[in-house]
Amino acid sequence: MAAKTADATWRERAQRVVPGGMYGHLSTRLLPDSYPQFFERSSGTRIWDVNGNEYVDYMCAFGPNLFGYGDAEIDDAYIAQLGIADTMTGPSPVLVKLAEALVAHISHAEWALFCKNGTDATTAAVMAARAATGRSTILRARGSYHGTSPWCTPLQAGTTKEDRSHQIYFDFNDIASLAAAAAEAGPDLAGIIATPLNQHAFLTQQLPTAEYAKAARKICDERDAYLITDEVRTGFRCSRDGLWDDLGAPPDFSAWGKVLANGHSLSVLLGSARARAGAEAIFVTGSFWFSAAPMAAALVVLRRIRETPYLETIERIGTQLRTGLGEVASRHGVGFEQSGPVTMPLWKFADDPDLRAGFFWCSEMLRRGIYTHPWHNMFINTAMSEQTVAATIVAADGAFGALTASRSQLGPNLKLSALLSRA
């Protein structure tokens, strides 16, 4: 009998004391069986599981890692502030410094409200829009993910019909569908919340058109409602500014997180001068929302965003990766679809409704030391290099070859077939 791995041991221990053995988006319950659940350390663009296996990590902790794991300058700022003060009875002046820096940097921002998670920021934005208008209805795209509060969590267990009321859905990038939703809301329209690009799990990512973004802005202007963009995932990965600011449709509120402190816990709700009254009317807070150390780290992150070619770097690396993967897939005759911005790629296979090919290929990539994901978008960070891409292409060449040889024998994906049939 094979010896039990360290990962298996930790899973058994977790099963006894953690609901489901693990929960949330870090659970591997729906991933291929070969995926490790527990990791021991990280550095730059690499992670090591508890079994001692090393991987190039294209998930980047599901997004927070922009400048590499364990970046010395960012972490030094965090540690230095931690040695002075972090969570206190009142905030540190670092909060004001970071708010000033963000307001100076983001075109539509006139104020900043700090919190911890993306859900905190999106929920505060919806509350503020409703408070400012005295109305209830929020429009959102079908399938859009805005966090795990009862109003937006993708799985409805434990929520009530009332939790999810006063929401009308439309199709992303579809101006007619958006207009129909606004018409249905009538005089009760409080706001529109939008992911700046269509980044839904399992689906091909879709970039917005300027016409669609401007249509959302126009509806809010005409009806005295509020436009909210959820930049938690896209923020600073696709633009140095707000993504819809670039499209000529600046929001009233924008929710940010993920990369803001390069992995240290921090998010923020930014807003225009017009949106300030709504933010001042609501009561939102948290015991750790005002912690100074993550804000000190974020000041370093924001300086780099302003002063370094970080965006050009990740766009260059992402383009090299997309080109290389496309060439290798074509050579193997594999229908391999790459969508989304090159800095946030999502990979799918043609004629793969239950992702059996995606599961097999990602498992082969994992076996070759590359951590990818079969249905979630991935991320590029500045610690990646041409050598990282080259190693990934070599691994992909082998994984595509293995898939071509085995695809006709692949059985149904039992982990996902039932879930996808309900989607």
- CATH fold-level assignment of the largest domain: Aspartate Aminotransferase, domain 2
Q: Output the CATH homologous superfamily of the largest domain.
A: Type I PLP-dependent aspartate aminotransferase-like (Major domain)
**CATH architecture designation of the largest domain:** 3-Layer(aba) Sandwich
The neighbouring-strand order within the major sheet is: 4-10-9-8-7-5-6
Radius of gyration: 22 Å
Largest sheet: 7 strands, mixed
For the record, the count of structural domains works out to: 2
Report helical residue fraction: 40-55%
The coarse overall form would be globular
- CATH class identity of the largest domain: Alpha Beta
- What is the total tally of β strands? 13
In sequence order, what are the helices and strands, one letter per element? HEEEHHEHEEHEHEHEEHHHEEHEHH
Integer average pLDDT = 96
Query: Any low-confidence stretches, pLDDT <50, length ≥5?
Result: none
Sheet/helix structural class: alpha/beta
Tell me what portion of residues adopts beta-strand conformation: 5-15%
Keywords:
single chain, 423 residues, alpha/beta, Aspartate Aminotransferase, domain 1, Aspartate Aminotransferase, domain 2, 2 domains, seven-stranded mixed β-sheet, 40% helix, globular
Topology (elements, then pairings):
Layout: H1 6-17, E1 39-43, E2 46-49, E3 54-57, H2 72-84, H3 93-105, E4 111-115, H4 118-133, E5 137-141, E6 167-170, H5 175-185, E7 189-194, H6 210-223, E8 226-230, H7 243-246, E9 253-256, E10 267-271, H8 276-281, H9 292-307, H10 310-332, E11 336-339, E12 346-349, H11 356-367, E13 370-371, H12 386-406, H13 414-422
Parallel strand pairs: 3-13, 5-6, 5-7, 7-8, 8-9
Antiparallel strand pairs: 1-2, 2-3, 4-10, 9-10, 11-12
